[in-house]
């Protein structure tokens, strides 16, 4: 079987035959993704400046069993992972200045320690 080198398909087959690394270089045309959640906190601070957060945001409290949503605020330490943004859970207990929130994620339950600043009562 002779291969004609001037057609695109034949050049592709030649690269498969001679060097598998060239095939990988031809198939992947764009840069590989570094993950969905890498570098997502840079713009969190744009809408939630510390000066716009009221005193009541800092001193709010919750009871055990309350349903809360996790809403991360920017420019504040101890921001929960962006994967849990908007998730609704149940307050289990108070721990330090934050609360232990129990979430159902797919088939498992997670317990996160979240400061009250990032929680909103439902």
Structure description:
It is a single chain. This protein has 122 residues and is α+β, with helices and mostly antiparallel strands. It folds into two domains: 1-32, no CATH class; 44-121, Ribosomal protein L21 (SH3 type barrels). It is built from three helices and five strands, in the order αααβββββ. It has helices at 8-18, 20-27, 55-59, and strands at residues 67-70, 88-95, 98-105, 108-115, 119-121. It is flat. The N and C termini lie far apart (70 Å).
What descriptors fit this protein?
single chain, 122 residues, alpha+beta, 2 domains, 5-stranded antiparallel sheet, 3 helices, 5 strands
Structure described in brief:
With 122 residues, the protein is of the alpha+beta class.
Rg calculated over all Cα atoms: 25 Å
SSE order: HHHEEEEE
- What is the domain tally? 2
What is the overall number of helices?
A: 3
Oligomer state equals single chain
The CATH H-level homologous superfamily of the largest domain: Ribosomal protein L21
Count of individual beta strands: 5
Apparent shape? flat
The mean pLDDT is 75
Question: Structural class of the secondary elements?
Answer: alpha+beta
- Name of the CATH class of the largest domain: Mainly Beta
Distance between the termini: 70 Å
Q: What would CATH call the architecture of the largest domain? A: Roll
Unreliable spans are 9-15, 17-25
- CATH fold-level name of the largest domain: SH3 type barrels
